[in-house]
Write a structure and sequence with these properties.
By secondary structure, the chain is α/β, with parallel strands linked by helices. It has 2 domains: 177 residues, MOFRL domain (glycerate kinase, domain 1, 3-Layer(aba) Sandwich), CATH 3.40.1480; 229 residues, Rossmann fold. It is built from 16 helices and 12 strands.
């Protein structure tokens, strides 16, 4: 049985999951030899700069440009790294995307493009369709993020309002050959969902996009309505301009959960993996998993090994208040409220990219003392949850997880450590 303190073990498991998806570790396992002739490296996402760094470690200096989140740049020999805004796009992202597209213009069939895509690319690789302005794009993106819509539905809307998503980036490079290396942050690891699939065809329709907009009562500017009323540029998977593209996932949530599980087993902990593609309201999932943890502990016998519940996926938050929160911190706060200080149960909920929502915080850890510490400071946990103010709650009691830029992104990491009763 492990001698590591529960909260430290949970933090270590999170670190193990992140390390398993480090591009410097996974790129050498998947990168082919550098092709002859002209090679252009492009990319977008929170992990893209780290991926570019790893590529140049293998291939040497390369022509190219990748776009990453502010604070996530890495030193490269020749590939240019541009930082832009996430999760809401900005002018730097627009300008960088224009320059990236110019690198692809005029490529021939003997040229080769290596595309590096990871989560976050939807807002970093930005070229609004039609007459949609950046300000309108920002408002649409903010509304989607606050709507509570699952990532799959968000992406359908995003693709049909963009000039680069839904296979359109790959089409811009045709007839050059393209290999896209992807780090997955979407439930089910569907390549079409990672960064809204800039190099992957999509059979979604503008009718579906309009239905999602109606379902979540999103208000669109006239420019966006005009785009959806016209034939958009999203490419069908069978499009000729996608015929020379190979999309390859090189890191995924399942692998990171497996590495964390192996580490826990080595320290005498029994592991149950609940799934790597869970979706839903963060507070609901936190409540449900906390209830499961309570049931497991009630059934445990003294002396049996601790039990670890592991899961991943992508939680969402429907904005109800004006607080500072994110899906993982909200998951943790809801779980803490459900556990009500139960002895022997600890949990962690973090985003593997180091950013939960828009805050520079990965998430939080909870345990039997969580609610007690908040009460001592005069905090009402239910009130913080109702205001979507989970980051403020955990900052006040000192239980945030702040790793800084992790340079990768394989989505949410949730773990409950359940210790046996002592009598």
């Amino acid at each position: 049985m492990t001698s590591i303190l529960p909260e430290q073990l949970l933090r270590t498991l999170f670190e193990q999951a992140v390390a398993a998806a480090d591009p410097v570790k996974v790129i050498p396992e998947t990168l082919p030899p550098k092709p002859e002739g002209r090679v252009v490296v492009i990319g977008a996402g929170k992990a893209s700069a780290r991926m570019a760094e790893a590529v140049e470690q293998q291939w040497g200096p390369c022509e190219g440009l990748v776009i990453t989140r502010y604070g996530y740049a890495r030193p490269c020999k020749q590939i240019e790294i541009v930082e832009a805004s996430h999760p809401v796009p900005d002018q730097a992202g627009v300008e960088a995307t224009t320059r990236l597209l110019s690198l692809l213009a005029g490529l021939g069939k003997d040229d080769f493009v290596l595309c590096l895509i990871s989560g976050g690319g939807s807002s970093l690789l930005v070229s609004p369709a039609g007459e949609i302005s950046l300000e309108e794009k920002q408002a649409i993106n903010s509304a989607l993020l606050a709507s509570g819509a699952p990532i799959g539905k968000m992406n359908i809307v995003r693709k049909h309002l963009s000039r680069v998503k839904g296979g359109q980036l790959a089409a811009a490079a045709y007839p050059a050959k393209m290999l896209t290396l992807m780090i997955s942050d979407v439930p089910g690891d569907d390549p079409a969902g990672i960064a809204s699939g800039p190099t992957v065809g999509d059979s979604g329709t503008t009718e579906q996009a309009r239905a999602i907009i109606d379902e979540y009562a999103l208000q669109l500017p006239q420019s966006a309505k005009d785009v959806l009323a016209a034939q958009t540029g999203v490419l069908h998977p069978d499009a000729e301009s996608l015929s020379r593209v190979e999309n390859r996932i090189i890191a995924a949530p399942s692998r990171s959960l497996a590495v964390a599980a192996d580490f826990a087993k080595e320290h005498g902990v029994e592991v149950q993996i609940l799934g790597d593609a869970l979706e839903g309201e963060a507070r609901d999932l936190g409540h449900e998993q906390a209830r499961l943890a309570l049931q497991i502990r009630a059934d445990m016998k003294p002396g049996q090994p601790p039990v670890l519940l592991l899961s991943g996926g992508e939680c969402t938050v429907t904005r109800r208040g004006d607080g500072v929160g994110g899906p993982n911190a909200e998951f943790a706060l809801s779980a803490a409220i459900t556990l009500q200080g139960q002895d022997g149960i600890f949990a962690i909920a973090c985003d593997t990219d180091g950013v939960d929502g828009a805050a520079e915080v990965a998430g939080a850890v909870i345990g039997p003392t969580t609610l007690g510490k908040s009460i001592n400071q005069g905090l009402n946990a239910e009130d913080y949850l109702n205001r979507n103010d989970s980051h403020s709650f955990f900052e006040a009691i000192g239980d945030q997880v702040i790793p800084g830029p992790t340079l990768t992104n394989v989505n949410d990491f949730h773990a409950f450590l359940i210790q046996p009763r002592k009598d």
